[in-house]
Design brief:
235 residues, ARM-like, elongated, mainly alpha, antenna complex
Length: 235
């Protein structure tokens, strides 16, 4: 337990790293020093922080560039937005592109169309899952439906699963009538994991089509799919 001076009950405030020290760390060859400096920049105004963040955009270490993406998201200016769009499109590492996608979501619904464009451009599973999560957080049902229609038939199983979960999320949105047919199209998918996911998602939809599909899945040849149906099945 930490005790504070009774004459001053407020906890001590963390010290802000001096700008000269931040610049020295950014010039250091040790990535750990650069990461620490980048983290400290969130305490500075955009006119100070953004140029220093941009100076690290081409660093060889992908983790440094990932931290830059995080830092740019905290600034939320036109300049940082433009830089993040460049990182999403052109950075060579998927981890960085995914982090840039997460940071873009901090700019709110106006960036949704940019995230959709990035989804079509980038077929990396990590980037696509980051974009799906971002659009769920932004509550943009039309854009979310669009990428789910694209991703649900893709080659990566984890992206397909994320799309199914997102279609379930759309059950309470303006896109429910368009989301349901996408789920129904996967009722007979060759992967038991997909069918099980669909079963869980269909419980969110109150409609005769969903009930009929759940009854069919209740007879599935794989017990794990049947279990997924019975988790929330109401007879």
């Amino acid at each position: 337990m930490i005790l504070y001076d009774i004459e001053d009950p407020s906890p001590p405030q963390p010290e802000i790293m001096e700008l000269s020290e931040i610049k020295a760390c950014l010039a250091n060859t040790n990535p750990k020093d650069r990461l620490k400096a980048i983290q400290e920049l969130h305490q500075y105004e955009p006119e100070v922080a953004i140029p220093l963040l941009l100076s690290q955009m081409q660093e060889k270490d992908f983790l440094v560039r990932s931290f830059v993406a995080m830092g740019l998201g905290k600034q939320r200016t036109a300049e940082s937005l433009a830089a993040l769009l460049q990182m999403v499109k052109f950075d060579r590492d998927a981890n960085v592109r995914a982090e840039a996608s997460n940071s873009l979501s901090l700019f709110g619904q106006p960036v949704a169309s940019h995230l959709v464009a990035a989804f079509y451009q980038d077929d990396n599973w990590l980037v696509r899952r980051s974009i799906i999560g971002a659009l769920v957080e932004l509550d943009c049902p039309e854009h979310l439906l669009e990428i789910c229609v694209c991703g649900i038939d893709g080659e990566d199983l984890t992206v397909q699963e994320a799309c199914i979960d997102s279609l379930a999320f759309l059950a309470s949105s303006s896109q429910r009538e368009k989301a349901l047919p996408q789920l129904l199209s996967k009722v007979k998918d060759s992967s038991w994991r997909i069918r099980a996911r669909v079963a869980r998602a269909l419980h969110r939809f109150s409609s005769p089509q969903a009930e009929t599909a759940l009854e069919a899945l209740k007879q599935d040849e794989d017990h794990r799919v049947v279990a997924a149906v019975l988790e929330n099945f109401v007879s």
